[in-house]
Amino acid sequence: GGQEGYRSATMLGSLARAARMGATRRVGTFSSATSTGVRLKSTASGPGIPPALLTNWYNIFGKSNVAYITWIVGGILVAEGVTGGMSDMLWSAANRGRLYESVDWTKFIVEDDDDDDDDDDEEDGDDDDEE
């Protein structure tokens, strides 16, 4: 009984210690220098989005909540249009010949004799016309 309680407490302590060490290691990897002393390159410099473009974007969309929400909603609508168009294109390509738009309806034309329909109308006749 007592041995099991000691083992679980020891195991939990070991897990907590390992979690702390892992967190320390992960945080350590984000520092500017590694254990070898080599300095990591900052993501702020180098190729990427030009600062002038970012400044212009901020001046237009970033300064107010309304402008930022407009940017988000516009981006969602554009992304939905693009992904919707792409998925429709892929669906049509995968189901060519099975969709309403891609069926050759000329194969289903029935040659109907219109004269027979006219004769049936005359035979039934409408007696309302006669007075």
> How many individual β-strands?
0
Sheet bearing the most strands, described? Answer: none
Query: Helix amount, in percent?
Result: 55-70%
C-alpha end-to-end distance = 112 Å
Proportion of strand residues:
under 5%
Overall outline: flat
Provide the low-confidence segments as ranges: 26-32
Mean residue pLDDT: 76
- What's the helix count? 4
Q: Give the SSE string.
A: HHHH
Q: What structural class should be given to the helix and strand makeup?
A: mainly alpha
Q: Could you tell me the radius of gyration in angstroms?
A: 37 Å
Give your account of this protein's structure.
This protein is mainly α and 131 residues long. 62% of the residues lie in helices and 0% in strands. It has helices spanning 2-29, 51-62, 65-94, 114-124. The N and C termini lie far apart (112 Å).
